[in-house]
Amino acid sequence: MDVKERIDTLSDELIELQRAYYVDGNSLKSDLEYDALFDELVKLEQEHPELMRSDSPTQRVGSDLTSDFPEVEHTIPVLSLDKAYSAQAVLDWMNKSEVKASGRLSFAEEEKIDGISMVLYYEDGVLARAVTRGNGHVGNDVTANIKTIHSVPLRLPEPINLAVRGEVYLPKADFERLKDKYPQIANPRNLAAGTVRRQKSSEAAEVPLDIFIYEGFWDEGDAPSDHIEILSRLKKLGFRINPHFALFSSSAEESRRRLEEAGLEGEGHAFDELGSYLEMVTERRQSLPYEIDGMVTKVCEMSVREAFGYTEHHPRWAIAYKFESPQAQTKVLDVTVQVGRTGRITPVAELEAVKLGGSTVKRATLHNQEYINTLELSIGDTVSVVKRGDVIPAVEEVIEKNEKGNGVYVIPPLCPSCGSVLVSRGAHLFCVNRSCPDQILGRISFFTGRDQMDMESIGPKAVQLLVENKLVEDIPDLYTCDYDRLVGVKGVGDKTIEQFKSAVKESLSRPFHTVLASLGIPEVGSKGAEILVKGGFDSIDKLLEASRNNDIEAFTRISQVGEQSALLIMNALNDPVMIERIEKLRAAGLQFVEVKEENNEEQIFSGQVWCVTGSFENFNPRGLAMKEVEKRGGRSVSSVTGKTTHLLVGKGGGSKKTQAEKLGVIIVTEEEFLELIGKKSETKSDKNDIQGELF
Q1: Which among 266, 142, 269 is positioned nearest to 204, based on CA atoms?
Q2: Does 426 lie in the same domain as 445?
Q3: CB within 8 A of 388, min separation 6: which ones?
Q4: Any residues with CB less than 8 A from the CB of 14 and at least 6 apart, and which?
Q5: Contact 533, 513 (CB under 8 A)
Q6: How confident is the model at residue 588 (pLDDT cuts 50, 70, 90)?
Q7: pTM metric for this prediction
Q8: For residues 319 and 298, what is the distance between their CA atoms, to the nearest angstrom?
Q9: CATH classification at residue 649
């Protein structure tokens, strides 16, 4: 056997093994046997690069060569879907479709994978291009990165021309495993989106993306007659089809018969079972190994699809049932850029004002450039806006592209606050100028914030006042500046100045874990600080010593601290600027050693999960109330979820209270809480609200 024949034999065998493992879930050879075949093919291709096939299995590992993503025109319609937000709305749409078609129809019900839409183009049976959705007419060529996905066939068993649509996603378990490596990525979808657009396909290969294919487009003479035949043919061609789908027709028996004849694993139902089916899907949603955000209902009959056609936005023969209704739709007027306390850049959509959750929203976060690219968002687009956790408005989806031809928005290369060149770190851009005005304001405001040192009278506007009057340039200056220099400044009275002084003095009594959480160290919020203290780091000196010695094991031996988190913490604590800041705060009298308190309290809150919102007369900072909970056996959390049992509500409690009421969480007032823990109220009658005097 000559070299070319051996390369062909190895390639064909490995392709079959990959398909069996990644598509069918069958392992035909041991890992050792597979690796031996793969290594032999790699060696032969390195020695004879001219003999490497375009569909070689070795392309799964990607290349270290950088690549751009040229724009490619789609040859098939790549549109969005019309939306429905109840089972009844889907049924109404199905009934209207049958009336329009003047006859009985059948409908496929498929999971709407929360991933990245992708079109694969095959020429003579070989993968030629993988293209993002783009604006529905033009997308980006990301072929090299998509070839690293093992379940994507590089060559089909038939030499046909074919376009298929699918959804690229990252399984939940893999995202959990990779979270420490990519701490800046919020969810599986964002990591999948960033991976698809990696400049080096070898880096894309490090993230185990997968894909489900759900539509195929054949030449007219060879087109299937219905959607079930489409799925059946796609499966036979080696594409990975999602088995979690259902066929609805006039009877469950007919649906099951058609699926069996097509060799598909889906469920067969009658029309009147749709409501219960959607309820079942909603309930099992959390147990799936991947994220879904709805279901898609499609007319099966291809002749009816052709007759129904398309609008400029969506096919008339399909509709998406969304689990959560978008609260509002509006237009993106502009995109501005914010600079955070760490220098991280966050793009913000400036919106045409719209009512959302009881308030008027004019701005919504766009997270980062990768998120914008995933949405393929342009200025002028019509978008859906939701409130993440009922708090932060975010652009969720592009509903309709702008008519001006605006391209996908790109964040400018310079910091909008100081003009420094932005630097890419992971999924985000950063301004690395420590003296950037927005970073200074952010750092100090974070330190004084309610969930950190809780210096109630020194909020963001007060910080801005202090910085603008050159009294404060960094956090330690809060403890050394002469607040009396504010006398005569417009809007600042004697009471305001005294409140500033009082807030600073009171903060000196905050425990070490609160001070630690307020320094802005990556991965060290309130919970992170408590984990470190309980894990043995009960003083700042122990943390500094471990960081100075690069003793990563001192951190990772704590079960909740991963290697990536440990590295981020050590890097921050080895920063000379951070070290100087800590020493100045130590000199000012802040607590840098955790003082253990004896706990003889009855464990009345054992098994309970408490959250807190608002401000209090007797617990300043309000974290002191959660300490009372923890001393009595309870657990405190930062947000209201289905596991929260109690919410302690003070003055000004907002969205958390609303969420608690929705979830049936027990709401407790400050007076009721004091009674539970057996303490009397110590109301501070001389406490003034700075809002009335300064702002």
Answers
A1: 142
A2: no
A3: 394
A4: 34, 37, 38, 41, 57
A5: yes
A6: very high
A7: 0.52
A8: 7
A9: 3.40.50.10190
Give the single-character DSSP code of 489. S
Range of the domain at 520: 512-588
- CA-angle at 325, arms to 324 and 327, nearest 5°: 125
Provide Rg for the chain, Cα atoms.
Answer: 29
Supply the pLDDT for residue 193. 86
C-alpha distance from residue 409 to each of 368, 371, 483, 582 (Å): 11, 11, 44, 40
Residue 534 sits in the same domain as residue 553 = yes
CA angle in degrees (0–180, nearest 5) for 454-460-462: 95
* Exposed e or buried b per residue across 160-186, where buried means at least 16 C-beta atoms within 10 angstroms of its C-beta: eebbbbbbbbbbeebbeebbbebbebe
Phi-psi group of 549: left, alpha or beta (phi > 0 → left; psi -120 to 50 → alpha; rest → beta):
alpha
Asked if 152 and 272 sit in the same domain, the reply is yes
The CATH number covering residue 235 comes to 3.30.470.30
Half-sphere exposure of 290 (CA within 13 A, CB side): 22
Contact 177, 257 (CB under 8 A): no
* Whether 520 and 669 share a structural domain: no
Rounded to whole angstroms, how far apart are CA atoms 211 and 117?
A: 10
Query: Is 421 in a helix, a strand, or coil?
Result: strand
Looking at residue 689, its pLDDT comes to 36
Q: Are 93 and 181 in contact (CB under 8 A)?
A: no
Q: 3-state secondary structure string, 144-163?
A: HHHCCCCCCCCECCCCCCEE
Q: pLDDT tens, 299-345?
A: 999 999 999 998 777 899 999 988 765 568 899 999 999 999 989 99
What are the backbone angles phi and psi of residue 447, rounded to the nearest 5°? -60, -40
The number of C-alpha atoms within 13 Å of 22 and in the hemisphere containing its C-beta is 21
Helices (H), 377-436: none
205 touches 183 (CB < 8 A): no
CATH number at residue 34: 1.10.287.610
Identify whether 688 is part of a domain: no
210 vs 52, 113, 129, CA distance in Å? Answer: 25, 11, 17
Active site residue: 83, 112, 322, 387, which one? 112
- Length in residues, the chain: 695
Whether residues 157 and 240 share a domain: the answer is yes
Q: How far is CA 529 from the centre of its chain?
A: 24
Token readout for 93 is 């749409």
Q: Are residues 111 and 248 in the same domain?
A: yes
> Could you give phi then psi for residue 363, rounded to 5 degrees?
-140, 150
Contacts (Cβ under 8 Å, ≥6 apart) of 477: 471
pLDDT digits (tens, 9 = 90+) for 160-180: 999 999 999 999 999 988 887
In the residue annotation, 112 being an active-site residue is answered as: yes
For residues 256-276, average pLDDT = 90
Pairing of the two strands 359-365 and 345-356: antiparallel
Dist. CA 646–CA 605, nearest whole Å: 10
Could you tell me which residues are beta bridge partners of residue 164? 120, 216
**Cross-sheet strand order for the sheet of 126-132:** 126-132, 116-123, 162-169, 210-217
Assigned token pair, 5: 């024949």
Placement of tokens 């689990």 in the chain:
323
Please give the angle made by the CA atoms of 37, 42 and 46, to the nearest 5 degrees: 150
pLDDT at 666 over 60: yes
Residues 145 and 277 in one domain: yes
Q: Are residues 285 and 149 in the same domain?
A: yes
Structural domain count, the chain: 6
Residue 689 lies in a domain: no
162 in a structural domain: yes
Q: What would the two tokens of residue 379 be?
A: 């200025």
Is 211 a member of any domain? yes
Of 477, 507, 537, the last residue of a domain is: 507
User: Of 539, 554, 588, at which residue does a domain stop?
Assistant: 588
What is the per-residue pLDDT for 325? Answer: 52
* Alpha carbons 415 and 440: distance in angstroms, whole number: 14
Q: How confident is the model at residue 84 (pLDDT cuts 50, 70, 90)?
A: confident
